[in-house]
Please model this.
Amino acid sequence: MSPSYVSPPWSAYMNQLHPGWFHKLFNATVMPCVSLDVEGVLADVHSVWINKFNKDFDMDISLENISHYDFSSIPKKYHPLKHFMDYTRDLWAKDWESIPLVEKQPHLALDKFVGEAHYPLDIVTARNSDVLVKEKVISWLKHNDLLEYCRNVHFTDAHKKALLFYDFYIDDNPFLQETLEPWQTQIVFKRPWNESFVETHQFISKKSLAGSFVHIMTYDAQARLSRLAFSR
Model:
């Protein structure tokens, strides 16, 4: 069965009326749902961008030099965040086939997780700029045989991801934690720009998809239900 592509699901709009009511009412006894990010987790747009940035400004910056998610470790006079957003938008639209995978074989971890856990898995991305880019993101996922693992692909704004009310978010954005409910957990996919992130019981750092999925599968279900009840 092919995944459906919606942006975002209807439950998100209902949750905006009364945040969390839908999930808290219906999700206490069902399997947890998982959100999987695209850029920085599946698609390695950063390595392509940094090469372009260095060429444009005659710089020699590596990914390891990017110590902040908002690129504030790069001199502001180069407007790195704007350069990143503008260039990667064109990259998706015009040259999406050149975007490499972050992990060489993500399918190994995905096969194991989908085959053993049977948890609902959706791909959720903040690459929500326009229809053309959305189409190319879907094309990239198809090209890399990643669509078969997920139910849906959702496009939304970064600050609205939490409104989709997944139980687990695998994401490289360390600021996502600021928007999550107490019963939600973020698996921070370890990259240079989030290494200063401080772990808690709700925000866990993992350096691979395999490690992220193992954490989800071994997560204490009773602890999850307790956090869900506490947040009511």
